[in-house]
Amino acid sequence: MLLYALVAVLFVGFVIRHLSLRSKLPKGTKWLPGPKGVPGIGRVWDIPRAHSYKRFKQWADQFGPIYQINVFGVNHVWVSTDKIATDLLVKRGAIYSDRPPINQLENSKTAPEYLPLLGYNDVWKRQRKFVTQIMSRSARSAHQNLPLHESYQFLAELLKDPQRYEKLMEDYTGRVISRLAFGDVSVHPEVAIHSHGLLKAISPGAHLTNIIPALKRLPAFISPWKKEERARHTYERGFFLQMHKLVSGKVETGTALSSYMKTFLEKKDDTGMDDMEGAYVVGMSGLAGVLTTASALMTYILAMCLYPQWQTKLQAEIDSVCGDRMPEPSDSPQMPVLRAVIKEIMRWRPITPSSIPHESTEDDIYEGYFIPKGTHVHPSQWAITRDEDMYPDPEVFNPSRWLEAKYPSYQEPLTQYPNIRNFTTFGYGRRICQGMDLVEAEFFVGIGGMAWAANISKKRDALGREIAVPAHDYTSLLISRPKPFQFDLKPRTEKREQQVWDNYFAAQRQEAMSSATGGMMAGIRDPGFALEKTVFSPGEPIAAAA
Ligand code: HEM
């Protein structure tokens, strides 16, 4: 009975909100086109929980590159070209940089916790400033070698056990970010656990609260969502605090490795943040860096199964530029094909296809259309990367579109372009992703390394027939990835396999030596990692070096 009364009150609330929104159209302006709905709930029944971005793209095809839709009393604007997204979110960034609330979380806009989810307020400003500083410091420092260092272990593990690719990719990106954030590689499994927890909490498709905002007002004792969120949050908070304590202890004894947390502790007075906020902003950087980057590595395998000609072209470039060795970041200007494959992966299968919405803080008029304050603006990555004027035959994985002048997306010089910086899939304006430099380095050696080391192809069944690989069977959380599929991954040659292992053992030796001298890699050995070589006898290169 209580529940029915609540639902009735909420419904009336929606209708009133809907009608008051409709009545405020300024003179001489019009509403954006869009699918019509029922007062109060809008068009909610027509939005699927899985892959809703495909429905939003269909509506873009019908109503144009900018349209609006009401969902539970909130005005949503969907943008499907890079130009309109830039006009609104970059050029008018002063009024389009707020975030909508995430209803599953408590106070996501104001609590000094998750930087990407904060409103456009002073908490966001100080956190963003701090992250800009640590990211640019770390990009300039020796930390940029970490992806290369970690890629050696990643490739060795992948050759040994390719079907564990999802876990191995998360391990790779998790190790890099755990070293950067905490100077401690051993915590990467826990960083991954918290990344999955937060991803589920903020994904529209995972919790009804994120679709029906009013459910947030249900008292805790009848809300399973609140119970789940409190448990998740307490667990995560404990981890961030534990990392803060651990690094503080090491700073005091002079044994802390360089890390975002160490920088925070040293510069705390300048940051305007207290310990809890500092622990969160560092921890959040860690969580942002695991699942996003790993998703694109998974798409690389899928793309190579479906478009093997690009593996051949990529390997030809690698062999001609690098000879026998693995690609390294300094090879980048000579490797446009590798950069084009990376960029095409991000275009073909955007990692956050539904996009991360901005919220407007003032009424606005765009080309005669009225966009009221409080509108949730979605720069639809799925649609923008399928804009046929910019990307002809958008469903085809075609890195040539970045390499040949006949394509609209082509840019010169090829020593510099294509690159992924500021690409639509990293968002827009004042809220653009802060991890782009790191991601670029991780992709270059992670994807370049896979192409250098291994041949990927469709798997064959016992009768020698190829097992089909679905071109788009992706998960439906905010960060999307291909659902597990079967493939074959084999070393390109025996010699290459040997080199993968040699690189791996050399990296281990470097860590051991660095550890002994207290250098940058000191203490970064992963205590949980015990990789055994399958083809060559384990430990051989280490013994040879000793
Ligand atoms: C391929 C990997 C990644 C993708 C596709 C990605 C994508 C995005 C997107 C779409 C946004 C929202 C932008 C907007 O609102 O307009 C964002 C924000 C953010 N990203 Fe990334 N990201 C990636 C990796 C990373 C990494 C590795 C880090 C850090 C180590 C990171 C840190 C952040 C932060 C801190 C924000 C919040 C910025 C703000 O709200 O002011 N991201 N990212």
Would you tell me the overall average pLDDT?
89
What coarse outline follows from CA principal-axis ratios?
globular
Number of helices: 17
Order of helices and strands: HHEEHHHHHHHHHHHEEEEHHEEHH
**Hetero groups bound?**
protoporphyrin IX containing FE
What class would the helix/strand composition place it in? mainly alpha
The end-to-end span amounts to 76 Å
Query: Could you tell me the radius of gyration in angstroms?
Result: 24 Å
Strand neighbour order, sheet with most strands: 1-2-6-3
* Uncertain residue ranges: 1-7, 520-546
Q: What does the oligomeric state look like here?
A: single chain
What does this structure look like?
The protein is mainly alpha-helical. The protein contains 17 helices and eight strands. It has helices at 2-22, 52-63, 82-91, 122-140, 146-160, 165-182, 188-202, 224-253, 260-271, 275-288, 291-306, 308-322, 336-348, 381-384, 436-453, 494-517, 540-545, and strands at residues 66-71, 74-79, 358-359, 364-366, 369-371, 376-379, 454-457, 488-491. The strands form three sheets. A four-stranded mixed sheet has the order 1-2-6-3, sandwiched between helices. Strands 4-5 form a two-stranded antiparallel sheet. Strand 1 (66-71) and strand 2 (74-79) form a beta hairpin. Helix 4 packs across helix 9 (260-271), helix 5 runs antiparallel to helix 6 (165-182) and helix 5 packs across helix 16. The model is unreliable at 1-7 and 520-546 (pLDDT under 50). The structure holds protoporphyrin IX containing FE (HEM). Residues 115-116, 128, 131, 177, 285, 288-289, 292-293, 296, 351-352, 356, 358, 425-428, 431-435, 438-439 line the site of protoporphyrin IX containing FE.
